[in-house]
Amino acid sequence: xxxxxxxxxxxxxxxxxxxxxxxxxxxxxxxxxxxxxxxxxxxxxxxxxxxxxxxxxxxxxxxxxxxxxxxxxxxxxxxxxxxxxxxxxxxxxxxxxxxxxxxxxxxxxxxxx
Length: 113
What we know:
With 113 residues, the protein is an alpha+beta fold. Helices cover 19% and strands 42% of the residues. The chain has a single domain (13-112), classed as Thrombin, subunit H (Beta Barrel).
């Protein structure tokens, strides 16, 4: 069930996916995506990511043959976690995320019943 205080424009699914992220001009770093939707993700890191930073993002969805490479903007940050809004996500990439969301959401609903 969706939290009534949740102001996101798209639903997110809990997950645990590796991601490589980079602030342009710095070295790439590794983190985890712990929530994912078609418009953004919750990034978990070993460091605090600057609020408003543009990040180069690269991750792979299970059962997909394509790497997702996009740009995201940090909308909020707190103790090694950052809410990232995707800035340049192609239609095919958004479709792949939506299919992953739908599959994971159905599996999580089945696990709860």
